[in-house]
Write a structure and sequence with these properties.
The complex is a heterodimer of chains A (373) and B (264).
Chain A (H helix, E strand, L loop, with lengths): L1 H14 L2 H15 L5 E3 L1 H7 L3 E6 L9 H14 L4 E6 L3 H13 L2 E7 H6 L1 H9 L3 E5 L6 H14 L4 E2 L10 H9 L1 H14 L5 E5 L4 H7 L9 E9 L15 E5 L2 E5 L24 H9 L2 E7 H15 L5 H13 L8 E6 L7 H7 L5
Parallel strand pairs in A: 2-12, 3-4, 3-6, 4-5, 7-8, 7-12, 8-11
Antiparallel strand pairs in A: 1-2, 9-10
Helix pairs in contact in A: 2-4, 3-13, 4-5, 4-9, 5-7, 9-11, 10-11, 13-14
Chain B lengths: L2 H12 L3 E7 L7 H11 L5 E4 L10 H12 L4 H13 L6 E4 L2 H7 L1 H11 L3 E3 L9 H9 L3 E6 L5 H10 L4 E4 L15 H9 L6 E4 L5 H10 L2 E4 L1 H8 L6 H13 L4
Helix pairs in contact in B: 2-12, 4-6, 6-7
The chains are: A alpha/beta (373), B alpha/beta (264).
Chain lengths: 373, 264
């Protein structure tokens, strides 16, 4: 707790410090490559025959996903706090790669915890992290995925309270959900302006995949005060609706506490955390960011799901029709757009957060398609 | 006076440090706890911390996590742990029995119901490591109503003003975490333990009980010099795990006697 209290105080201090945000904006521009573009998906739109689909291209940010936005912000905070060692957890490996990247940039020691199940699904990212100088520690407990990596990172942090814990999603104890949202909200701020420039209006629907929920909260946030803009989060429907076969928290999850967050948690009747499944490691988590729980309960956002099969289909469609390999996480959002667009008019628009690129997923996709690489 | 307070008062008069074994309920077998607790009480244990297994035991090291996984595989639930407490009282166990568990199973069971059932079973309190003082009120309200103690944690990194606040909320005893880290057997006790316990002592007149990393009779003796009790968890679980089913009860009792310094 003292470490969290200190983090909260440090974040409150930089929130009021224009110098911090100027430095972050400078690095976002010169290092990350922001603003990321907004692409009109012409052939995907024609294929669906309905609403026009726009893609916010977080896949084009340095390291290939939105995770760099948060890693850079928290990395600068760690530096301001005088920390020398950074701990992170990772699911798909994108947050681990982003954290390893920022630590290399800022000269910080980096230790990344990753479930061994995820390490085998995301071999390229494991190697990338090691190339970037990070130590990758396999976690062989529980479901051997993101949840267990977070447990291990938190254990490291209580053992080394002088380290900085760079949590990757809008989860965990306060101030993480707020801080991660603030660092990711650059996505929505840019997309808001870009949609106005491209179409003269705000989008009718904003779609984003939701694991912990950082890319979704990042793009939703700029549109919260515009009730005409519908916000849709897409969870991992996995292999089916049975507990253990998916990671769709709004499909039967109950309020609970996991890893310092009170939110919806997939659990059994005895309060044990349920196993989850998704083809995408980044969505494979039993709880959801608390702000999404609130957006769900207040009705401001709605949440739906895409199955493994739908996500894989969307992955291939985006590749063939737009020349973009999406991350399997982001492919869940594309799958929702594919369902939604034909039900809408051609003068309406859908903004999809393409949160990451899919190069990391080619082994998983090849396996599903029964192709030997 | 609560059973916990009576126990510490009696030990203080006798000039003895309290020995509190930690056992994961339903480890290694589903009904092991029913045999282990009476045997360890007879061997010199004074209070018991009974672990309710959880899928994600954040504050625990590998030993207790593995024991929890085994207990969960044995079908152990919070209901079963409450039944175990009741069964231990039926078998004549006198020592205070505290349930140590993570918050989510308690929330799912219902805090009020959990406290009612623990009190009815003859239990004495809760140890819940993943609820910070800021969030402890709901559990504490329910516990006070049923005259149960909610044990609070102090750690070496807790600043003095926060210690004062924790002491204000504490009852039963203060759980003093000997090191910055998670549970697990260790070679040596942390340096600076006496200073840390001195800081805690200035905030409370409650008994101070030291846990995390206590593994040997020497550790228990060192703790006896500066605190009122010692919790032995992972070292005991490790020891039990390597015993054959036939040796288990007698072996665990011998281990506790050794910790007490009354054997060998």
């Amino acid at each position: 707790m003292p470490a969290i209290t200190a983090l909260n105080a440090a974040y409150n201090a930089v929130e009021q410090d224009p110098g911090f945000w100027e430095e972050l904006a400078y690095l976002q521009h010169t290092y990350t490559g922001r603003p990321t573009p907004l692409s009109f998906a012409a052939r995907l739109t024609a294929h669906c025959g309905g609403a026009r689909i726009y893609l916010k291209r977080e896949d084009l940010a340095h390291t290939g996903a939105h995770k760099i936005n948060n890693a850079l912000g928290q990395g600068l905070l760690a530096q301001r706090m005088g920390k020398r060692r950074v701990i992170a957890e990772t699911g798909a490996g994108q947050h681990g790669v982003a954290t390893a990247t920022v630590c290399a940039l800022l000269g910080l020691e980096c230790v990344v915890y990753m479930g061994t199940e995820d390490m085998s699904r995301q071999r390229p990212n494991v190697f990338r992290m090691r190339l970037l100088g990070a130590e990758v520690c396999g976690v062989d407990t529980g479901s051997r995925t993101l949840k267990d990596a977070i447990n291990e990172a938190m254990r490291d942090w209580v053992t080394h309270p002088d380290s900085y814990y760079l949590l990757g999603s809008a989860l965990g104890p306060h101030p993480y959900p707020t801080m991660v949202r603030d660092f990711q909200s650059v996505i929505g701020r840019e997309a808001y302006q870009q949609m106005l420039e491209a179409t003269g209006a705000l989008p009718d629907v904003v779609v984003a995949c939701v694991g912990g929920g950082s890319n979704a909260i990042g793009i939703f946030h700029a549109f919260l005060d515009h009730p005409d803009v519908q916000l849709r989060g897409v969870e991992a429907g996995g292999r089916g609706a049975q507990l253990g076969e998916h990671a769709a928290r709004f499909l039967g999850a109950l309020p609970g506490v996991l890893q310092g967050t009170y939110s919806y948690v997939l659990q059994d009747p005895d309060g044990q955390i349920a196993l989850t499944h998704s083809v995408s490691a980044g969505l494979d988590y039993a709880s959801i960011g608390p702000e999404h729980a609130w957006l769900h309960d207040s009705g401001r956002a709605c949440y739906t799901l895409a199955t493994d099969a739908e996500a894989l289909d969307a992955f291939q469609k985006l590749a063939e029709l737009e020349g973009i390999l999406p991350a399997l996480e982001s492919a869940h959002a594309i799958a929702e757009a594919l369902k939604l667009a034909p039900t809408m008019r051609s003068d309406q628009t859908i903004l999809v957060n393409l949160s990451g690129r899919g190069d990391k997923d080619i082994f998983t996709v090849a396996e599903v398609l029964d192709v030997t690489l | 006076m609560s059973r916990i307070a009576q126990t510490f008062a009696r030990l203080r008069t006798a000039g003895r440090v309290a020995l509190m074994p930690y056992l994961t309920v339903g480890f290694p077998e589903r009904d092991s706890t029913l045999a282990l607790v009476p045997a360890l009480e007879a061997a010199g244990a004074d209070l018991f911390e009974l672990g309710v297994p959880f899928s994600d035991p954040l504050a625990d090291g590998a030993t207790i996590q593995r024991a929890s996984e085994r207990a969960l595989a044995n079908g152990v639930t919070l209901s079963f742990c409450l039944e175990t407490v009741a069964a231990l009282r039926t078998r004549g166990v006198q020592a205070p029995l505290l349930l140590m568990g993570y918050y989510n199973p308690l929330l799912r069971y219902g805090l009020e119901r959990a406290c009612a059932d623990l009190a009815a079973a003859g239990g004495d309190g809760w140890i819940v490591p993943d609820v910070p003082p800021e969030e402890i009120n709901d559990l504490q309200q329910a516990a006070v109503h049923y005259e149960l103690d909610v044990i609070m944690f102090a750690t070496p990194t807790t600043p003095d003003e926060r210690l004062t606040e924790i002491a204000r909320l504490a009852s039963g005893f203060m759980y003093c975490v000997s090191l910055t880290g998670v549970t697990g057997a260790r070679q040596d006790l942390a340096h600076g333990l006496a200073d840390f316990l001195g800081r805690v002592r200035r905030t409370t007149s409650l008994p101070l009980v030291v846990g995390f990393g206590i593994s040997t009779a020497e550790h228990v003796q060192q703790v006896a010099a500066v605190a009122d009790g010692a919790i032995v968890g992972s070292a005991l679980i490790n020891y039990i795990a390597q015993l054959s089913p036939e040796q288990m009860i007698a072996g665990a009792a011998t281990f506790v006697q050794t910790l007490r310094g009354t054997h060998g």
